[in-house]
Write a structure and sequence with these properties.
The protein is of the alpha/beta class and about 350 residues long. The chain has a single domain, classed as Alpha-Beta Barrel (TIM Barrel). The chain is about 35% helix and about 15% strand. It has 10 helices and 13 strands. β10, α9 and β11 form a beta-alpha-beta unit. α4 runs parallel beside α5, α8 packs parallel to α9 and α9 packs parallel to α10. The longest helix has 18 residues. It is globular and about 50 Å long. It comes from Spirosoma utsteinense. InterPro entries: GH (IPR017853), Glyco_hydro_5 (IPR001547), Glycosyl_hydrolase_5 (IPR050386). Keywords: Carbohydrate metabolism, Cellulose degradation, Glycosidase, Hydrolase, Polysaccharide degradation.
Length: about 350
C-alpha cells in the first residue's frame, strides 16, 4: 500500500468508526499442513499466565473480542496458554486438571466457531519448558517425566476437540523453543504421536527454533505446519522493553534501522525472515506468522512503517499473521502509547491508524 493510500484509508476509518460493523464474516477456509490459509488475527492472553500477573488476568475469554475481530474482517485468534492455569507446577500433580478452567478454553473454541474465527491453541508454557520465567522444575528436552506430562496434556486437548474440523481449531505445540534441533525433533515427534493416537487428522503446527525464527526442515516428514515470528530487528519491535536487557540503553529506533551492525529494511527482512521459510515451503510445509508486533515505546510512525513492510512481505509470500496482542502494549486496543490520539471505542482506546493498516493486509 502506498503512503497516500494508507493516509486516505486511515482518514476514512476515522470518519466511519462509529459504524465499524463491516461485512459479514466469510466461511473459514479448510487448512492443510502443506498449505496454511492466510489467517489474519490476534493473540488473546487470558490464559497466558496463571493468576493476575500477566497482561490480562487469567479468566474466561471475552466474547466481545471475538466479535470485534470478526467485525473488522479478521479470521484468526491464537491462544497462548500456560498449563499452570489448569494444573499445578508441581511435577507430582502435573496430570491433575482443573475442568472448570478447561471449560473456559472450550468456550473460546465455541466463540471462534460462532464468529467464524479459526482458533489456534498454543501451549506457551508446557510441562518442562517456557520461554519466560520462572523456569520449570524439570526440563522438557532432557527429562522423560516432563515429556510424559507434556504428551498427557496434548492428548487431553486432542480428546476434548476430537471431531472438531480443522477449519475451526488447530494445535500449536510449544511456544518459541530454545534447544538443539535433535532434542526438539524428538519432543515434537512424541507430542505429535500422542495427539494422533487420539485424533489422527488434527492440524498441528510447530514453532521454529531459535525462539520461532529458524525453520526446522527435519520436521517436514511429520506433515506439520510451522510458525515463524515477526519481531526482527529487535531494537525496533522491543525498544525499551523491560524484559529484554540486551536492548537497555538503545537509542530511539528508526525505520529503516541499524541493528547488530546490519542495516535493516524490507530487503533485509526478506533475506533473513522470508527466504529461509520459503525454502521450507518447497518441502511441503505451510507457514504462518504466529506472533509479531511492536512494543508501545517505539515511536508510532516508526512502528507503522516497519509494520507495513512486514505485512507487504507476508502478503507477497501468501502467509497469514497473528499480532501480539489485541488488547495491550503491542495491540490496537488499550496500547497506552504516549504519541497516539486514541478513539474511544466500546469503552476502550482504539489505535485507528494501526487498525486501518492491518485491515489492508
Amino acid at each position: 500500500m502506498q503512503r497516500r493510500s494508507f493516509i486516505q484509508t486511515s482518514l476514512a476509518a476515522t470518519a466511519g468508526l462509529s459504524q465499524l460493523s463491516l461485512t459479514a464474516p466469510m466461511e473459514l477456509p479448510e487448512p492443510k499442513p502443506d498449505k496454511l490459509p492466510r489467517w489474519r488475527g490476534f493473540n488473546l492472553l487470558e490464559k497466558f499466565v496463571a493468576g493476575k500477573t500477566g497482561p490480562e488476568p487469567a479468566g474466561p475469554y471475552k466474547e466481545q473480542d471475538f466479535e470485534m475481530i470478526a467485525d473488522w474482517g479478521f479470521n484468526f485468534v491464537r491462544l497462548p496458554m500456560s498449563y499452570h492455569c489448569w494444573a499445578t507446577p508441581d511435577p507430582a500433580h502435573w496430570t491433575e486438571l482443573d475442568e472448570r478452567v478447561l471449560k473456559e478454553v472450550d468456550q473460546a473454541v465455541d466463540f471462534g466457531k460462532q464468529h467464524k474465527l479459526h482458533v489456534n491453541l498454543n501451549l506457551h508454557r508446557i510441562p518442562g519448558y517456557c520461554v519466560n520465567p520462572p523456569a520449570e522444575p524439570l526440563n522438557l528436552w532432557t527429562d522423560e517425566r516432563a515429556l510424559e506430562a507434556a504428551v498427557f496434556h496434548w492428548k487431553h486437548l486432542a480428546e476434548r476437540y476430537k471431531g472438531r474440523p480443522n477449519r475451526e481449531v488447530s494445535f500449536d505445540l510449544i511456544n518459541e523453543p530454545n534447544t538443539d534441533e535433535a532434542s526438539y525433533v524428538r519432543v515434537v515427534t512424541a507430542l505429535v504421536e500422542g495427539i494422533r493416537s487420539i485424533d489422527p487428522n488434527r492440524l498441528i503446527i510447530a514453532d521454529g527454533l531459535q525462539y520461532g525464527n529458524q525453520p526446522v526442515a527435519k520436521l517436514a516428514s511429520l506433515k506439520l505446519g510451522q510458525s515463524t515470528r515477526g519481531y526482527l530487528p529487535m531494537n525496533v519491535s522491543h525498544y525499551n522493553a523491560e524484559w529484554v536487557p540486551m536492548l537497555k540503553g538503545s537509542p530511539p529506533p528508526t525505520w529503516p534501522a541499524t541493528w547488530m551492525n546490519t542495516t535493516w529494511n524490507a530487503k533485509t527482512l526478506k533475506t533473513f525472515a522470508i527466504e529461509p521459510w520459503q525454502k521450507l515451503q518447497k518441502q511441503g510445509v505451510g507457514v504462518h506468522v504466529g506472533e509479531w508486533g511492536c512494543y508501545n515505546k517505539t515511536p508510532h510512525d516508526v512502528a507503522l512503517r516497519w509494520m507495513e513492510d512486514q505485512l507487504k512481505l507476508w502478503k507477497g509470500a501468501g502467509w497469514g499473521w497473528s499480532l501480539w496482542n489485541f488488547r495491550g502494549a503491542f495491540g490496537i486496543l488499550n496500547s497506552d502509547r504516549s504519541d497516539v490520539t486514541y478513539k474511544n471505542y466500546k469503552g476502550m482506546q482504539l489505535d485507528e491508524k494501526m487498525l486501518a493498516l492491518l485491515r489492508d493486509y
